[in-house]
Amino acid sequence: MGKIYVFDHPLIQHKVSLMRMTSTNTKEFRDLAREVAMLMAFEATRNLPLEEVEIETPICKTRVNMLKGEDIAIVPILRAGLGFVDGMLEIVPNAKVGHIGLYRDPETHEPVEYYCKLPSDIEKRRVFVLDPMLATGGSAVAAVDFIKQKGAQDIVFMCLIAAPEGIKALQEAHPDIDIYIAAKDDHLNENAYIVPGLGDAGDRLYGTR
Ligand code: PRP
Ligand code: URA
Question: For residue 103, how far is its CA from the centre of ligand 1 (angstroms)?
Fold first, then answer.
Protein backbone atom coordinates (compact mmCIF):
# COMPACT_ATOMS: atom_id res chain seq x y z
CA MET A 1 0.00 0.00 0.00
CA GLY A 2 1.37 3.43 -0.96
CA LYS A 3 1.95 6.01 1.75
CA ILE A 4 0.59 9.54 2.04
CA TYR A 5 2.99 12.25 3.16
CA VAL A 6 1.63 15.65 4.18
CA PHE A 7 4.45 18.14 4.71
CA ASP A 8 4.64 20.01 7.98
CA HIS A 9 7.85 21.90 7.27
CA PRO A 10 7.38 25.58 8.20
CA LEU A 11 9.03 26.85 5.00
CA ILE A 12 6.64 24.83 2.86
CA GLN A 13 3.61 25.90 4.89
CA HIS A 14 4.64 29.57 4.68
CA LYS A 15 5.17 29.45 0.91
CA VAL A 16 1.90 27.61 0.25
CA SER A 17 0.08 30.23 2.35
CA LEU A 18 1.60 32.97 0.18
CA MET A 19 0.47 31.12 -2.95
CA ARG A 20 -3.11 31.00 -1.68
CA MET A 21 -3.35 34.80 -1.36
CA THR A 22 -5.24 36.65 -4.09
CA SER A 23 -2.67 39.44 -3.76
CA THR A 24 0.19 37.15 -4.88
CA ASN A 25 0.91 38.00 -8.52
CA THR A 26 1.82 35.69 -11.39
CA LYS A 27 5.58 36.10 -11.09
CA GLU A 28 5.53 35.62 -7.32
CA PHE A 29 3.27 32.57 -7.71
CA ARG A 30 5.61 30.99 -10.27
CA ASP A 31 8.67 31.63 -8.10
CA LEU A 32 6.93 30.13 -5.07
CA ALA A 33 5.83 27.05 -7.06
CA ARG A 34 9.46 26.43 -8.05
CA GLU A 35 10.67 26.89 -4.46
CA VAL A 36 8.00 24.60 -2.95
CA ALA A 37 8.70 21.94 -5.59
CA MET A 38 12.38 22.06 -4.69
CA LEU A 39 11.67 21.68 -0.97
CA MET A 40 9.19 18.86 -1.57
CA ALA A 41 11.61 17.13 -3.94
CA PHE A 42 14.19 17.00 -1.18
CA GLU A 43 11.88 14.77 0.91
CA ALA A 44 10.18 12.91 -1.93
CA THR A 45 13.56 11.69 -3.16
CA ARG A 46 14.62 10.38 0.25
CA ASN A 47 14.52 6.70 -0.75
CA LEU A 48 16.01 7.01 -4.23
CA PRO A 49 18.32 4.16 -5.11
CA LEU A 50 22.05 4.73 -4.71
CA GLU A 51 24.93 2.95 -6.34
CA GLU A 52 28.43 2.45 -5.01
CA VAL A 53 31.17 3.85 -7.23
CA GLU A 54 34.92 4.14 -6.89
CA ILE A 55 36.33 7.67 -6.79
CA GLU A 56 39.65 9.26 -5.96
CA THR A 57 39.91 11.90 -3.24
CA PRO A 58 43.12 13.97 -2.89
CA ILE A 59 44.13 11.39 -0.26
CA CYS A 60 43.21 7.97 -1.69
CA LYS A 61 40.86 5.86 -3.76
CA THR A 62 37.58 5.03 -2.02
CA ARG A 63 34.08 3.75 -2.67
CA VAL A 64 31.16 6.14 -2.16
CA ASN A 65 27.40 6.22 -2.73
CA MET A 66 26.08 8.21 -5.66
CA LEU A 67 22.60 8.66 -7.09
CA LYS A 68 21.51 6.57 -10.03
CA GLY A 69 20.28 9.84 -11.54
CA GLU A 70 19.46 8.37 -14.95
CA ASP A 71 16.70 6.29 -13.36
CA ILE A 72 14.28 9.16 -12.72
CA ALA A 73 11.50 10.62 -14.87
CA ILE A 74 9.47 13.71 -14.10
CA VAL A 75 6.02 13.90 -15.68
CA PRO A 76 4.09 17.14 -15.20
CA ILE A 77 0.38 17.13 -15.97
CA LEU A 78 -0.12 20.06 -18.36
CA ARG A 79 -0.39 22.71 -17.86
CA ALA A 80 -0.18 23.55 -14.16
CA GLY A 81 2.24 20.70 -13.44
CA LEU A 82 4.85 22.58 -15.49
CA GLY A 83 5.18 24.99 -12.57
CA PHE A 84 6.83 22.21 -10.54
CA VAL A 85 9.35 21.02 -13.15
CA ASP A 86 12.16 23.55 -12.65
CA GLY A 87 12.19 23.06 -8.87
CA MET A 88 12.37 19.27 -9.28
CA LEU A 89 15.14 19.56 -11.86
CA GLU A 90 17.23 21.65 -9.48
CA ILE A 91 17.33 18.61 -7.19
CA VAL A 92 17.49 15.85 -9.84
CA PRO A 93 19.05 17.58 -12.87
CA ASN A 94 19.61 14.34 -14.82
CA ALA A 95 15.96 13.30 -14.76
CA LYS A 96 14.15 12.88 -18.06
CA VAL A 97 10.94 14.83 -18.49
CA GLY A 98 7.74 13.50 -20.05
CA HIS A 99 4.48 15.41 -20.50
CA ILE A 100 0.82 14.50 -20.19
CA GLY A 101 -1.78 16.98 -21.40
CA LEU A 102 -5.10 16.78 -19.57
CA TYR A 103 -7.78 19.31 -18.84
CA ARG A 104 -10.93 19.04 -16.81
CA ASP A 105 -14.11 19.36 -18.82
CA PRO A 106 -15.75 22.44 -17.26
CA GLU A 107 -19.20 20.77 -17.25
CA THR A 108 -18.47 17.19 -16.22
CA HIS A 109 -15.14 17.84 -14.39
CA GLU A 110 -13.89 14.67 -16.13
CA PRO A 111 -10.28 14.71 -17.45
CA VAL A 112 -9.77 14.92 -21.22
CA GLU A 113 -6.38 13.81 -22.61
CA TYR A 114 -4.84 15.86 -25.42
CA TYR A 115 -1.10 15.00 -25.27
CA CYS A 116 1.18 12.26 -23.97
CA LYS A 117 4.93 12.01 -24.61
CA LEU A 118 7.01 10.00 -22.17
CA PRO A 119 10.65 8.86 -22.08
CA SER A 120 10.93 5.64 -24.14
CA ASP A 121 12.44 3.71 -21.21
CA ILE A 122 9.76 4.84 -18.73
CA GLU A 123 9.36 1.26 -17.42
CA LYS A 124 12.88 1.39 -15.93
CA ARG A 125 12.42 4.70 -14.14
CA ARG A 126 10.93 6.02 -10.94
CA VAL A 127 8.29 8.40 -12.23
CA PHE A 128 7.38 11.58 -10.33
CA VAL A 129 3.97 12.77 -11.57
CA LEU A 130 3.55 16.48 -10.82
CA ASP A 131 0.36 18.49 -10.54
CA PRO A 132 -0.25 21.31 -8.04
CA MET A 133 -3.93 20.41 -7.49
CA LEU A 134 -5.52 17.09 -6.52
CA ALA A 135 -9.22 18.02 -6.50
CA THR A 136 -11.64 15.25 -7.59
CA GLY A 137 -8.58 13.17 -8.44
CA GLY A 138 -9.84 12.52 -11.98
CA SER A 139 -6.78 14.05 -13.67
CA ALA A 140 -4.28 12.30 -11.40
CA VAL A 141 -5.99 8.90 -11.78
CA ALA A 142 -6.08 9.27 -15.59
CA ALA A 143 -2.44 10.40 -15.75
CA VAL A 144 -1.26 7.46 -13.66
CA ASP A 145 -3.41 5.13 -15.82
CA PHE A 146 -1.62 6.36 -18.97
CA ILE A 147 1.81 6.10 -17.39
CA LYS A 148 1.13 2.54 -16.20
CA GLN A 149 -0.16 1.61 -19.68
CA LYS A 150 3.25 2.70 -21.03
CA GLY A 151 4.89 0.24 -18.65
CA ALA A 152 5.91 2.33 -15.62
CA GLN A 153 5.73 0.47 -12.33
CA ASP A 154 7.40 2.79 -9.82
CA ILE A 155 5.25 5.93 -9.59
CA VAL A 156 5.07 8.78 -7.07
CA PHE A 157 2.49 11.59 -7.17
CA MET A 158 3.44 15.09 -5.92
CA CYS A 159 0.95 17.92 -5.45
CA LEU A 160 0.72 21.23 -3.69
CA ILE A 161 -2.85 21.11 -2.38
CA ALA A 162 -5.08 18.06 -2.10
CA ALA A 163 -8.74 17.66 -1.19
CA PRO A 164 -9.80 14.57 0.78
CA GLU A 165 -11.96 13.51 -2.20
CA GLY A 166 -8.94 13.50 -4.54
CA ILE A 167 -6.71 11.62 -2.12
CA LYS A 168 -9.38 8.93 -1.70
CA ALA A 169 -9.94 8.59 -5.45
CA LEU A 170 -6.22 8.33 -6.23
CA GLN A 171 -5.57 5.88 -3.42
CA GLU A 172 -8.50 3.67 -4.44
CA ALA A 173 -7.53 3.63 -8.13
CA HIS A 174 -3.78 3.27 -7.55
CA PRO A 175 -3.14 1.88 -4.05
CA ASP A 176 0.50 1.16 -4.95
CA ILE A 177 1.72 4.76 -5.34
CA ASP A 178 3.06 7.16 -2.70
CA ILE A 179 1.42 10.60 -2.59
CA TYR A 180 3.32 13.72 -1.42
CA ILE A 181 1.14 16.69 -0.46
CA ALA A 182 2.25 20.15 0.69
CA ALA A 183 -1.15 20.98 2.22
CA LYS A 184 -4.33 18.97 2.75
CA ASP A 185 -7.44 21.13 2.44
CA ASP A 186 -11.00 20.84 3.61
CA HIS A 187 -13.34 19.96 0.77
CA LEU A 188 -14.44 20.69 -2.81
CA ASN A 189 -17.03 23.32 -3.71
CA GLU A 190 -19.91 22.86 -6.17
CA ASN A 191 -17.53 23.57 -9.09
CA ALA A 192 -15.07 20.94 -7.85
CA TYR A 193 -12.57 23.63 -6.75
CA ILE A 194 -10.57 23.01 -3.60
CA VAL A 195 -11.66 25.01 -0.54
CA PRO A 196 -9.89 27.13 0.65
CA GLY A 197 -7.38 26.20 -2.11
CA LEU A 198 -5.69 28.80 -4.27
CA GLY A 199 -8.06 29.07 -7.23
CA ASP A 200 -7.13 27.78 -10.67
CA ALA A 201 -3.47 26.81 -10.50
CA GLY A 202 -2.90 27.05 -14.28
CA ASP A 203 -4.41 30.53 -14.44
CA ARG A 204 -2.40 31.68 -11.44
CA LEU A 205 0.86 30.35 -12.94
CA TYR A 206 0.34 31.80 -16.39
CA GLY A 207 -1.82 34.86 -15.80
CA THR A 208 -4.76 33.53 -17.85
CA ARG A 209 -8.38 33.26 -16.90
C1 PRP B 1 -6.27 21.50 -12.86
C2 PRP B 1 -5.10 20.97 -12.10
C3 PRP B 1 -5.28 19.49 -12.22
C4 PRP B 1 -6.77 19.33 -12.22
C5 PRP B 1 -7.19 18.85 -10.86
O6 PRP B 1 -6.04 21.46 -14.21
O7 PRP B 1 -3.87 21.41 -12.57
O8 PRP B 1 -4.71 18.93 -13.39
O9 PRP B 1 -7.31 20.62 -12.48
O10 PRP B 1 -8.53 18.59 -10.82
P11 PRP B 1 -9.13 17.14 -10.64
O12 PRP B 1 -8.41 16.50 -9.51
O13 PRP B 1 -10.57 17.39 -10.33
O14 PRP B 1 -8.96 16.39 -11.93
P15 PRP B 1 -7.07 22.07 -15.29
O16 PRP B 1 -8.02 21.03 -15.75
O17 PRP B 1 -7.67 23.32 -14.74
O18 PRP B 1 -6.14 22.35 -16.54
P19 PRP B 1 -4.93 23.40 -16.73
O20 PRP B 1 -3.78 22.88 -15.90
O21 PRP B 1 -4.67 23.33 -18.18
O22 PRP B 1 -5.40 24.75 -16.25
N1 URA C 1 -7.98 22.74 -10.42
C2 URA C 1 -7.45 23.88 -9.93
O3 URA C 1 -6.59 24.50 -10.58
N4 URA C 1 -7.87 24.31 -8.73
C5 URA C 1 -8.77 23.65 -8.01
O6 URA C 1 -9.11 24.10 -6.90
C7 URA C 1 -9.31 22.47 -8.53
C8 URA C 1 -8.89 22.04 -9.73
Answer: 6
